Amino acid sequence: MKLILLGAPGAGKGTVAKILTAIDGSVQISTGDILRGAVQAGTELGKEAEAYMKRGDLVPDSLIMGIMGKRLQEPDCQKGFLLDGFPRTIPQAEALKALLAKLNISLDMAVNIEVPRETILDRLCTRRTCENPQCQAIYNVKSSPPKQEGICDKCGSAVIQRDDETEEAISHRLATYNEKTAPLIGFYEKEGLLKTVSGTSSDVVVNELKSAFGL
Ligand code: AMP
Fold it and tell me: Whose alpha carbon is nearest atom 5 of ligand 1?
């Protein structure tokens, strides 16, 4: 499947993407994961992105399109891809449309995962992430803690609270979402690609998508 996953930070895009990739072999492409990996590795990209990310601001569209222009042409995308956290602005959506047209790829759907604000705030404050850039497994101190506190079940690295998951950064990220990213819902509705799913549970979202794709 070739999907865009839309939804506020904490809506469950990453969790849904991980379950779906295991089902149909598509790849999850998370611009947030790519950027965090670059920050940890200390690359030029990471240095440019770090301050924006810490504040909960979006990194410039040109950096993101530089990453995605290459990533979508890698061979593993041929089986399908789930775009998690991209596009985040109307200019990114326009640039993606042009890029896909050039590559002769058509999207199946843009899925808008709708979750109430209180659920999102609660999830983000209690979310923990594996610090290993190659893993970045997600845990929740309340609903799905690692088996051993602070240690990733999958790779044994430390499980940490992200810098941009302090209360201040979270409310800034949500405001940025409302201002810059929520308009994409109208954009994809006009494109005839929008599917909205009410998603307090990731399993419900996954099941709706599985039936939409006959899986
Ligand atoms: P995420 O893990 O998707 O919440 O992304 C974490 C941070 O990375 C965001 O708060 C932004 O600073 C940055 N980021 C990720 N994806 C994008 C994007 N498509 N456009 C701009 N900034 C992004």
Answer: 32
